[in-house]
Amino acid sequence: MTTTGRYETAEGQPAVRFERTFPHPVSAVWDAITDPARLAAWFPTSVEFAALQAGAPITFRFAADAHPAMAGTFREVRPPERPAFTWGEDELTFELAADEGGGGCRRRRLFPSRRRWNTL
pLDDT tens digits, residue range 26-69? Predict the structure, then answer.
């Protein structure tokens, strides 16, 4: 498993892609990235939403209110393979697929930016 991402473009914008393989079925990884209680174990904020559907609002809160809450919106929800949502000014897209060896799940995470990046 690599710990670095790779730079690419997505829809004509700069993006960073990370890929990981987990020894779990796609359904378990889907739950880990769409269930607020499970997100709390690894995502840097709490995640609050009433509906897991495109267009639904999301609120992100930092522990101890260290930073102001951030708003987001689900841009796409295709269970069990692709949730995409805005997080502040950025969009996160997760792509899930069964591992080619059949022993787990491959997760790709894409971070395109709506901001113009002139330098990295």
Answer: 899 899 999 999 998 988 999 999 999 999 999 999 988 889 99
Q: Read off the DSSP letter of residue 71.
A: E
Start-end of H helices in 1-120: 26-34, 36-39
* Dmax (CA) of the chain: 43
- pTM for the full model? 0.79
Residue type at 66 in one-letter notation: A
CA 26 vs CA 22, 33, 67, 99, 102: distances in Å: 9, 11, 33, 9, 10
Rounded to whole angstroms, the Cα distance separating 57 from 6 reads 29
CATH 3.30.530.20 fits 30-112, yes or no: yes
- What is the structure's pLDDT at 117? 45
Domain residue spans in the chain? 30-112
CA separation for the pair 44, 86 (Å, rounded): 15
